[in-house]
Write a structure and sequence with these properties.
alpha+beta; single chain; elongated; five-stranded mixed beta sheet; Ribosomal Protein S5, domain 2
Length: 132
């Protein structure tokens, strides 16, 4: 039995998070780390962003999103998933690039946390000066 399901892959990164995202033909379900995302989920903003991207391209409820993400926090992971999703969409159809580029979704946000330096309280902050 040969089942040919077409799927598209994209890798996304943000801060210290990295996500592997697969785009499969389906009905609009979003699965992150083997957990189904719903409207009642705590990461509602991520789901809204994904729905927004599909709405821009007018392909709502045509694809399922399956993502595995590691590292970082909630915001970084969400950004990594979005970045990977956009790359997977572009692997699916390159004609979507002008729309995605117009909304600044094609470029990776390269900002990461600056490292702490020795002899200082943080990356930029110095220890408090004491006269005596």
């Amino acid at each position: 039995m040969n089942i040919n399901i077409q799927r598209f892959y994209g890798t996304g990164r943000r801060k210290t998070s990295s996500a592997r995202v697969w785009l499969l033909e389906g009905n609009g379900r979003v699965t992150v780390n083997k957990k189904e995302m719903t409207d009642k989920d705590t990461h509602r903003m991520l789901l809204n962003d994904i729905i927004h991207i599909f709405g821009l391209l007018e392909i709502k409820n045509k694809f399922n999103v399956v993502a595995t993400v590691k590292g970082g926090g909630v915001s970084g992971q969400a950004g990594a998933i979005i970045n990977g999703l956009v790359k997977a969409i572009l692997n699916c159809n390159v004609n979507y690039k002008p729309v995605l580029k117009k909304h600044n979704l094609t470029t990776r946000d390269s900002r990461i946390v600056e490292r702490k330096k020795y002899g200082q309280a943080g990356a930029r902050k110095k220890f408090q000066y004491s006269k005596r």
